[in-house]
Amino acid sequence: MCLGVPGRVISIDGTDALVDFFGVRRHVRLDIVDEPVGPGDYVLNHVGFAIRRISEEDAQATLALFDSILQGDDALDLMRADVEAEIAATRGGGS
Amino acid sequence: VTELLGVEALRFRDVERGKGLTTKLAQRVNALNRKVSLMHVCGSHEQSIARFGLRASFPRALDVIMGPGCPVCVTDVPEVDEGVSLALAGVRIATYGDMVRVPGTSKSLADARAEGAKVDVVYSVAQAVELARGTNEEVVFFATGFETTAVTTAAAIVAGVPKNFSVLSAHKYIPPVMEIVAEMPETRVEGFLAAGHAAAITGWGVFEPFVARHGIPVVVAGFEPLDVLAGLVRLVELIAERRVAVENLYPRCVTRDGNKPAQAMLARVFRPMGGRWRGIAHVPNGNLRLRDEFAHVDARRRFKIDASRLWDFAPPGLAQHCRCGDIMAGIASPADCKLFGKECSPESPVGACMVSSEGTCRIWKQYGGHPSLGDAV
Q1: B143 bridge partner residues
Q2: Is the CB of B259 less than 8 angstroms away from the CB of A51?
């Protein structure tokens, strides 16, 4: 029930939108979406209601966040972490 | 169009980024030099962890527990009994599919249907309203789900429903139950992964008072494997730095303030009330009930619901060994339950956790029974 799925708006009739979800078309209500939605926009769907408009920039921002978490690694850090883990395992009786 | 969206989704399953994040997670956990337990409160997070085999990549010192994040599982027995009683009294019940097989004291809605009751599965409250429009019969929408789902029920009511439509609300509100879990003496949880879609409504700011009170960090994360991995990495980092904060790793869907019109809709239609969550505890402000202004669509006021006849047939035995409550509280895993996979299976569930596609036991059974390879070796 919590599986919010994103889809692309095809057309709108009042508070009812026809939305394409990976090739499956369904009607989605727009009563509670937080900003105006038009054809071509992406929306997050939850049990037949759009709960948020998703912009391309927002999707990009999340990917950038993942990359920033991955940055700052260098080989030394990796090695040190491995060695520390080894030592920790030995101290813990190898369990 | 469809391809583009497909590519979008795939980017959040990118293998290289995933490998990087699993390595990072191992480093961060190993650097802590001790065991660490994190909890998520969302069936969709567990789905992602199980479906993509993420547990197998977790370091052994990391325990990721699924908390009370399955709305169907925490719907309490008396609430199911109310629905079953109405159905047996001849009222047409519309509800989400997972609810139909959840056991009440002695019967589920599926049992009632087998005895001739009218029980319809709907995908959305909008569908239940349509069902009522097409008939003269009384239709009761048995409404389950957390705040994100409750908002849709509220919106349907505000938009206008036919006279023969009413709502039996078993909606629940997540933030109060996090307090309960954090305060359980047995709990070892040091950080929470909060569900992105609930936060899309409430905003991540809703977790700030919780974090301040309990000194436990919260990271809001989405449901793709990379979302989950990145969220776990950040949580461990916050724990290592002893930084008590809320962080939002799901900016594509979640803002600090959330969806204001939706919050207003929720507050207008529902009021928070204390009540039991199945297997967990009495949760202050954990239940959402219709306000007086909407008494005319409240099934509890429209019908006299008497569930007492169900109590005479309460089956002894199996249910008393069910450990759904401990599992949802993070004290036990499905592997600790002696019924798991034996007397209790998706085909003949004993507890609600084995019924719902978002239940821990059901997910573990579906993806191999014991998806934590860390424990198996």
Answers
A1: B169
A2: yes
Distance from CA of A13 to the nearest CA of B (A): 15
Degrees, nearest 5: CA angle B138-B141-B144: 160
Which residues are paired to B113 by β-bridges? none
CB count, 10 Å around CB of B161? Answer: 20
Residue B12 is predicted with a pLDDT of 67
Closest Cα in chain B to A66: B230
Query: In the beta sheet, which residues pair with residue B192?
Result: B39, B218
d(CA B97, CA B71): 12
Quick check: A58 and B31 CB within 8 A? no
The pLDDT-based confidence of B373 (bands split at 50, 70, 90) is very low
Give tens-digit pLDDT for B86-128: 999 999 999 998 899 998 888 899 999 999 999 999 999 999 9
Any idea what the Cα angle at residue A12 is, between residues A9 and A17, rounded to 5°? 60
Q: Average pLDDT for residues B372-377, to the nearest whole number?
A: 44
Of B254, B248, B238, B249, the closest CA to residue B191 belongs to B238
Whether A8 and B159 have beta carbons less than 8 Å apart is answered as: no
User: Cα(A9)–Cα(B41) distance, rounded to whole angstroms?
Assistant: 30
* Nearest-neighbour CA in chain B from A45: distance (Å): 10
- Give me the helix-helix angle, B225-240 and B43-51, nearest 10°: 110
Residue-wise pLDDT tens digits, B216-249: 999 999 888 888 999 999 999 999 999 999 999 9
Give the DSSP letter string of B26-63: HHHHHHHTS-EEEEE--HHHHHHHHHTTHHHHS-TTEE
Q: Residue A32 is nearest to which of B72, B249, B261, comparing CB atoms?
A: B261
Neighbours of B29 (CB within 10 A): 25
Tokens at B49, concatenated:
């962890």
Chains A and B: how many Cβ contacts under 8 Å?
160
Q: The pTM is what?
A: 0.83
A33 CB-near residues (< 8 Å, 6+ apart): A43, A49, A50, A51, A52, A53, B259
Q: B259 and A44: CB-CB below 8 Å? A: no
